[in-house]
Amino acid sequence: MLLNGRNAIIYGGGGSIGGAAARAFAREGARVFLAGRHPEPLQEVAAEIREAGGLAETAILDALNQQAVNAHADDVASEAGSLDISLNVIQHGDVQGTPMAAMSVEDYLRPVSTAVQATFITAQAAARHMMEQKSGVIMAFGGSGTEDRGQYLGGLITALEAIESMRRQLAIELGPYGIRVVTLRSGGVPESLPRDMEGHDDVAGAITSATLLGRAATLEDVGNAAVFAASDMAASITATTINISAGALID
Predict the structure, then answer these.
(1) 54-84: per-residue pLDDT in tens?
(2) Structural domains of the chain, ranges and CATH numbers in brackets
(3) Strands 85-88, 7-11: parallel, antiparallel or unpaired by DSSP?
(4) Is this structure's pTM higher than 0.85?
């Protein structure tokens, strides 16, 4: 197993992306700690993992609450013996479909503020323990936006760019401690879209049509890529993104 003996915190672990990563981590031997604000989806993912023979625990937690995040990370490291993987995939509260020229400043800045605060708080909480143990992987999801993806996405693109700026800085500062910092870029995952969202099929189709392979990343793809990025097979990969967009995002 690629992650045998590792301990992973997934913020937003009850969501589609967080759940996919959590199930894949557990499948490869990691003990997963699912954190989020709503108990039901966390418990659902944890139950699936346990039913498959994996180890999963849940915690009701707001990733913007620094005191709570620090206390939870301390508890995980103390109980499990280490904190090896930290993945933040919380929702940012972005408003989409509204032109920037018609958007309120509050709606535009909300995802930026949320992304920056949550990334800083969760990365810092993990780094404190990883620096002591001289190892660990801090992961983000999303990556930089592109011009054709940016239309009517409000502050989301700015939020993703901010996360990437933080990822680069964290990688530089934490590299000497053996800590890797990596972002997964998908270009969009149709399976993660709410079925009841307006224009669901059109959005899913647009994501797929933008790829070079004629297929978009699946949740299974996300989980597999997350496992690889967190494992020793990617021991030399840091300060970069892993592109799983099927060619939608051309580097």
Answers:
(1) 999 999 999 999 999 999 999 999 999 999 9
(2) 7-243 (3.40.50.720)
(3) parallel
(4) yes
